[in-house]
Design brief:
6-stranded antiparallel beta sheet, two-stranded parallel ribbon, transcription, AraC family transcriptional regulator
């Protein structure tokens, strides 16, 4: 594999949405075929019964019955264990997700965690998703087909965002530093291959570099430079582990003209050279 495969929503659905209700054993073969990949869209899982584990950017995530989990576009993942009993799989094109909801889903610098659902929340999701799937499977020639399924999708996304908004740091996202951290995470993910300067990110956010540093230290304990390096090294780890690119190719892909300089940054952050990392994790 020269590079990490990217699964595209346009290959899955014309409406920017794909939803499936899975029952025991129904999609085990589909799961096995997925392999290591990224998506150019969001993936949501609502698990009513059963359990599953995903390797997401070198972290194994476990989620069990009565839980909600999502994957962001670009995150490298593959299933490691699954016992899918009853639940939902929802793939959503990013433009269909309202900016306020995306701020909740994308705004945290640490990896997102599964959210445990109460019986009432689980029933709400089941009701909305059952109706959404029913409409999704109905006649596409209906003049109001897309508005109806997109309206129902917004109901699901709003409930999901509310769950994670409540769970994340006691509504800390309402403070100015937390809002700034969220905005920084979004533009960092989109620009880390081309922009490495803390001052450039501060300029995009219309704040001073010192204020952005202060905001990130307050919300995460770390500086702007730290998070830029972490994001770049994470992408490098993905490419080292899942692709066949050499160090020079990876360095150029990530915006470094000098592969030696890139290797020094990688070793300082990961405590291994790029080749040592590849050999160690591919054992």
């Amino acid at each position: 594999m020269k590079d990490i495969p990217v699964h595209k929503i346009q290959d899955r659905a014309n409406s920017g949405l794909d939803i499936r209700h899975f029952v025991p054993g129904a999609h085990s073969k589909d799961v096995e075929k997925l392999g290591v990949h990224r998506d150019d869209h969001y993936i949501f899982f609502v698990l009513r019964e059963g359990s599953a584990s995903l390797m997401v950017d070198f972290h194994e995530m476990h989620f069990a019955e009565s839980s909600l989990f999502y994957l962001l576009p670009g995150q490298v993942h593959h299933p490691t264990r699954y016992n899918l009993g009853d639940g939902w799989f929802i793939a959503v094109d990013t433009p269909l997700i309202a900016p306020d909801y995306r701020m909740v889903f994308e705004g945290h610098l640490q990896l997102q965690q599964p959210f445990p659902l109460s019986p009432q929340q689980l029933e709400e999701f089941h009701t909305v998703l059952s109706l959404l799937e029913n409409k999704y499977q109905s006649n596409e020639e209906d003049p109001f087909y897309l508005p109806v399924i997109h309206s129902l999708l917004q109901s699901f996304l709003g409930i999901a965002a509310s769950c994670f908004c409540t769970a994340n740091s006691n509504r800390q996202q309402l403070s100015r530093p937390a809002q700034l951290a969220q905005q920084f995470k979004k533009i960092l993910t989109e620009n880390m291959r081309t922009i490495k300067s803390p001052s450039a990110y501060a300029a995009q956010l219309n704040v001073s570099e010192s204020y952005l540093n202060e905001a990130l230290k307050k919300t995460t304990g770390m500086t702007v430079s730290y998070w830029i390096t972490q994001e770049v090294v994470l992408e490098a780890k993905r490419l080292l582990y899942y692709s066949e690119m050499n160090t020079k190719e990876i360095a150029h892909t990530l915006g470094y003209e000098d592969p030696t300089y890139f290797s020094r940054i990688f070793k300082r952050t990961a405590n291994l050279t790029p080749l040592e990392f590849r050999r160690h994790y591919r054992k």
